[in-house]
Amino acid sequence: MNQLDIFGTKKHEYLLVIEPDLKTTDRVIAMKELLNKTISLTTDSLQSKPHISLCYFEANNYSEELILSRMKQAISSIKPFDILLVGCEKWKNGTFILKVHQDERIRQFQQELSAVFKGVIKTPHLTIARNLPERSLTKLSLADYDYNGRFTCESVLLLKRNGNEPYQLLEQIDLLKS
User: Fold this and answer.
1) CA proximity to 161, closest of 81, 82, 58
2) What is the distance, to the nearest Å, from the Cα of residue 140 to the centroid of all Cα atoms in its chain?
3) pTM of this prediction?
4) Which residue, 5, 116, 117, 163, is the most exposed by fewest CB within 10 angstroms?
């Protein structure tokens, strides 16, 4: 019999992400479909929603209010900013991404998060697919996936999951309006 976890000892994964605009989302989905015709992608890669990961960490369930409070405090001074996507790149670990231009606003965001949370992503990017075999990566023509775009980040999403379950939206946090 499973016991009720009254002390909140169960660990959960948390992920803070930026969701791109509809135009960028549609473009990334089209890239995944094109890539799937060349290289057979996993269902997870095909079905994952386009996003830019900012921070990943694990914590006990009982600390959720504290996590939300600290997250909101950490980004309370961040105003909406533009995200620039500047082409694609193949990483040695089998990940295929769209590069995010590292401007001052992104670095400020990372710095504010790092003051409160471990697990801040050092190279923000938008993943097209991951865990691709090296031989598959060599087949790719980067020109087919080259994309340069811009969208405004006005909020971030804090996601949560338990084990291998899909991430669920915990909270959308709006950035500071002028």
Assistant:
1) 58
2) 23
3) 0.89
4) 163
- Collect all residues with Cβ–Cβ distance below 8 Å to 115 and sequence separation of at least 6: 74
Digit-coded pLDDT (tens) for 49-88: 999 999 999 988 778 889 999 999 999 999 999 999 999 9
Percent helix, strand, coil in the chain, to 5, is 30, 35, 35
Q: For residue 99, which of 78, 75, 117, 124 has the smallest C-alpha distance? A: 124
What are the two backbone dihedrals, phi and then psi, of residue 101, each rounded to the nearest 5 degrees?
-65, 125
Give the count of beta carbons closer than 10 Å to the beta carbon of residue 114.
14
Q: Identify the CA nearest to 132 among candidates 87, 93, 97.
A: 93
**How far apart (Å, rounded) are the C-alpha atoms in residues 157 and 135?**
35
Please, which residues have CB within 8 angstroms of residue 38's CB and are 6 or more apart in sequence?
Answer: 139, 140
